[in-house]
Amino acid sequence: xWRISTQQSEPENKGYNPKHNDHIMQTLPLAGEFFxxxxxxxxxxxxxxxxxxxxxxxxxYQADVAINGVQVLQALHRQxxxxxxxxxxxxxxxxxxxxxxxxxxxxxxxxxRIIALTAYALQEDREKCLxxxxxxxxxxxxxxxELIKALQKVAHIKSGGIVVV
Length: 165
Description:
Layout: H1 18-27, H2 31-34, E1 39-42, H3 46-58, E2 63-66, H4 69-78, E3 83-87, H5 95-105, E4 113-118, H6 123-132, E5 136-139, H7 144-158
Parallel strand pairs: 1-2, 1-3, 3-4, 4-5
């Protein structure tokens, strides 16, 4: 299940700051205006889909939905996307396999950036995602400021910034 992380980590470990998420919610809704992206959400859980779509809309983004890796590949053949928010555990074809197919089929400069959205939080899980060809990694429960930072990186690449391969 996706939840908004409400804890703020600070170097001095001052603890929970209830105003932190309020600040995020007030400053990030314009992200979609400043960093427009065509987003494909790959998520098989309907509750997670609805929550993610709602939060993305709050930040000014729209997204199409695929429920497995097969649908991700079909969607990418129909139209280009700037970014795929990829769950790892999905039926028919998981996110790692779908990512490998995307990296084999499209050149790095032509393919969408792939951001893992997963409950797997160990360093070895992150390394598996990156080794499969994913470009970034955000753990569930999702800290929305981290996801927005990842989307901003994609927008920077799309706009001609430094391409990270």
